[in-house]
Amino acid sequence: MAQDIKLNLEEILLDISDLHVQYNTDDATIFALNGFNLQVRRGEKLGLVGETGAGKTTMALSVLRLLPDKIGKVTAGRILYGGDDLLEQTEAYMLGLRGRRISMIFQDPMTSLNPIVAVGDQIMEVLDLHAPYMSRYEKNERVDRILSMVGIPPARKMEFPYQFSGGMKQRIVIAMALIAEPELLLADEPTTALDVTMQAQILDMMSRLKQEFNTSVVLITHDLGVVAEFCDRVAVVYAGKVVEQGAVEQVFARVRNHPYTVGLLNCIPDLESTAARLIPIPGQMADPTRLSPGCAFADRCVHCMDICRRKPPKMYEQDGHWILCHLFKERED
Ligand code: SF4
């Protein structure tokens, strides 16, 4: 499907096509990604939204080849990064890529920080691994610079994680993710645990990074409000598939949307509305242990038609805004 997206190929940094990932446990097989397609352009900020369990984090772990050993498995698809298929690269290649060219910020900063190592040393470790040619002096300078950039006084770099607040720890994790100036940052709910003031500061800081290093950012979130404020484009994920993708203006214009996106948009509080309640999306997320032959959203969709349960929808695309839904005219093959 990637060939259908009218993007300049030179611009595309990450191109995931028809990716299938499953988790095998003793009890069941969970189909986490089921034909996942996504393109990320150089220097853009892309929001990846959807409910918990939609497959957003699995996508990021697949790109970094960090799926849980023996349980998580890519069964089909391609992940092109700068033209190379990451699924075909050696572990040595991936070691050079992780943290250097692609970084990830995990949801909980405490799982990313070592409690018994000073934060400055933890940030320095990234440079020791990825920039061994730099002198100690240069590395120290770089650590001080990145700490200042994330709003942590460099004088505090010999302190330990417990001496910082939750927001500061998250900013230290972001500093670790950015010290090697990656081309792509996968930020998995980086602001979920933070108050709105800190959230605004971190989003502002990630915007500045884009300006300074031309870093592409994939912001994984369930918060469409954050996406509207921060991102250039948005991809909506449901049951392991991107069901809508487009520029933020196109998706938020509410002219043409996937019914699931409509449901998500209806869940955003509107201060000007006099409605007493928000409209929730009915039903539960599709069972990931049972793949539907048709549209995975059928059980929750008010527009569901007979064909929806039998046939997977094809892509409808207009001006780079695409939607997977039978409501729209099917693309001719
Ligand atoms: Fe609803 Fe059918 Fe569209 Fe799925 S394909 S979102 S069930 S109208």
User: How many helical stretches?
Assistant: 11
Q: Tell me the domain tally.
A: 1
The low-confidence runs, each spanning 5 or more residues with pLDDT under 50, are 1-6
The order of strands across the largest sheet is 6-7-8-3-9-10-12-11
Mean pLDDT: 88
Distance between the termini: 11 Å
Strand content: 15-25%
Number of strands: 12
Major β-sheet annotation? 8 strands, mixed
- Identify the CATH class: Alpha Beta
CATH architecture: 3-Layer(aba) Sandwich
Query: Superfamily at the CATH H level?
Result: P-loop containing nucleotide triphosphate hydrolases
**SS class:** alpha/beta
Descriptive labels:
8-stranded mixed beta sheet; binds iron/sulfur cluster; 333 residues; Rossmann fold; 4-stranded antiparallel beta sheet; alpha/beta; disordered N terminus
Please, could you describe this protein's structure?
α4 (119-130) runs parallel beside α6. The relative contact order is 0.14. Helix content is 30%, strand content 24%. With 333 residues, it is α/β, with parallel strands linked by helices. A hairpin with a 2-residue loop joins β4 (72-81) and β5. It is built from 11 helices and 12 strands. The strands form 2 sheets. It has an 8-stranded mixed sheet with strand order 6-7-8-3-9-10-12-11, with helices on both faces. A 4-stranded antiparallel sheet has the order 2-1-4-5, with helices on one face. It is globular, with a radius of gyration of 21 Å. Residues 258-259, 295, 297-298, 301, 303-305, 308, 313, 325-327 line the site of iron/sulfur cluster.
